[in-house]
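W.,

You were right to be curious about this one. When I first looked at the sequence I had no strong expectations either way, so I just let the prediction run and decided to look at it fresh. Below is the sequence, 171 residues in total, followed by the output.
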Amino acid sequence: MTDPEGVMRRGVRIGVDVGSVRVGVAGSDPEGVLATPIRTLRRTSSNDRVAQVRQIVAQTEAIEVIVGLPRGLSGTEGAAAAAARDYADRIAAAVAPVPVRLVDERLSTVSAHQQLHRAGRDTRRHREVVDQVAAVLILQAALDQEQRTGTAPGDAVIVTQDVAGTKESGT
């Protein structure tokens, strides 16, 4: 949230674009003005890279993680959105008490491909960076929304403590 005078919260935010093969990660400056790419993490069946996201959050002392939620143009959620929600839940459990928020990311990957094409990047090499660019677009949109509205963007991912003492989360 913003402070009573409407000043944007100070602190680094991390943006995450979740894909089935790669996870794009972006970060903001401490003022929450500009998003820049950090890296692309390659997912495997045995390693979804949540630990690496947790490490980035810790290293940057991030105040928040923004995860893109891929919805259809009509606002409906499909399998990709369910996977993003699940990944956001796992990140939230891993980085607690740092808040995690889901934000609408309709067309972020399409926009990322278009930007790379306009920048003259060879289409065959888009895969290497498209997830980072999508993460930048997701995070920048969230930063812009907070600056415009004075409230944190998207929906919070809620982390709860179960009876055994292990973290669980749910959106």
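Here's what jumped out at me. Helices lie at 50-60, 79-95, 108-118, 126-149. And, maybe more interesting for your project: The CA atoms of residues 54 and 95 lie 6 Å apart.

Coffee later to discuss?

I.
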